[in-house]
Amino acid sequence: MSVAPRRAQHATTRVLVTGAGGQLGTELAGVLGRLARCEVIAADHRRLDLSRRDDVLIALEELEPDVVLHAGAWTDVDGCESDPDRAFAVNAIGTRHVAEGARRVGAHVCFVSSDYVFDGTLGRPYVEWDEPNPLSVYGRSKLAGERECPEGATVVRTSWVCGRHGANFVRTMLRLAAGDGPVRVVADQLGSPTFTADLAPAIVRLALDRRPGTWHVTNSGETSWHGFAAAVFAAAGADPGRVEPIPTDALDPPRPAPRPARSTLENLSWRLSGLAPLPAWEDGLAALVAELAG
After folding, report:
1. What does the alpha-carbon distance between residue 23 and residue 196 come to, in Å, rounded to a whole number?
2. Please, which residues have CB within 8 angstroms of residue 137's CB and are 6 or more apart in sequence?
3. DSSP secondary structure letter of residue 90
4. Which of 66, 129, 193, 211 is deepest in the core (most CB within 10 A)?
């Protein structure tokens, strides 16, 4: 498909953020809004329904962004498992619509993907060139979204995302830490907790630089969900001993969607490009808990 003629070059870089009502999208819009060279258009799912092709194409043709930072997704892993049509309509077909609209206006696409494109059986952290093999509908729909991205797009895989906005694991554990009694958390799933305050600036950098290819971007280090929960309790001044480790198959009720046992991402593209690693996940957690407590 030929690229439509563009109007005169924007004085600033116009960036459309999809999924701008989510915890990462909100942070991305905030980071971009603090950059004098950027004009930010924040679109949540109410403003832009990714599953509706005409709506997406009209929006991109009217807004004429220079960059589309595509964070919009249905991220309810268990919900996706029970409604695969919706998962693929948003995460895969929605990305197809974004890619089509971006081609029409000559915009660069940066797509946010997931560690759940891997099955977790490799026995070491995954690098960008390892073969995906998702276990869940959510993971398959995100991999399909990656494959719908146009040539030269930026694809950013990340994991276990938490931040100051929206519901997430840290907020849940802080609520439980304020209560009494034991809290049972799985100890046989490993990954890299990643915090939007660190992740969003990294994604913005890749997007504005229009760096092509696949990138793993997470906070440094690895832990289990149990280790993560215990660290949240400790950071909140609660007894981490209240967090009891259990295997995944002891969850009651069991989760509908299978999870990878070890989906840790090695940020190899980032490191080989000479970029400074994101802070350790423990540091990101400390900063988030301090902010939420304040």
Report:
1. 8
2. 80, 81, 84, 87, 88, 257
3. I
4. 193
| Cα 200 from chain centroid (whole Å) | 9
* Per-residue pLDDT reduced to its tens digit, 56-83: 999 999 999 999 999 999 999 999 999 9
Assess whether pLDDT exceeds 50 at residue 5: no
CB neighbour list of residue 80: distance below 8 Å, 6 or more residues apart: 74, 86, 87, 91, 136, 137, 138, 141, 257
Within-domain flag for 278: yes
Q: Cα–Cα distance between 88 and 94 in angstroms, integer?
A: 8
Residue 36: the pLDDT is 86
Distance, in Å, from the CA atom of 96 to the CA atom of 77, rounded to the nearest integer, reads: 21
The residue type found at 249 is D
Residue 184 to residue 206: CA distance in whole angstroms = 38
Tally of domains in the chain: 1
124: domain CATH number is 3.40.50.720
Q: Quick check: 172 and 158 in contact, CB under 8 A?
A: no
For 34-48, 108-122, 224-238, which range has the lowest pLDDT when averaged over its residues? 34-48
- The CB-side HSE value for 19 (13 A sphere, CA atoms) comes to 26
Task: Write out pLDDT tens, residues 150-178.
Answer: 999 999 999 999 999 989 999 999 999 99
Q: Which residues are catalytic?
A: 138
- Structural domain includes residue 7: no
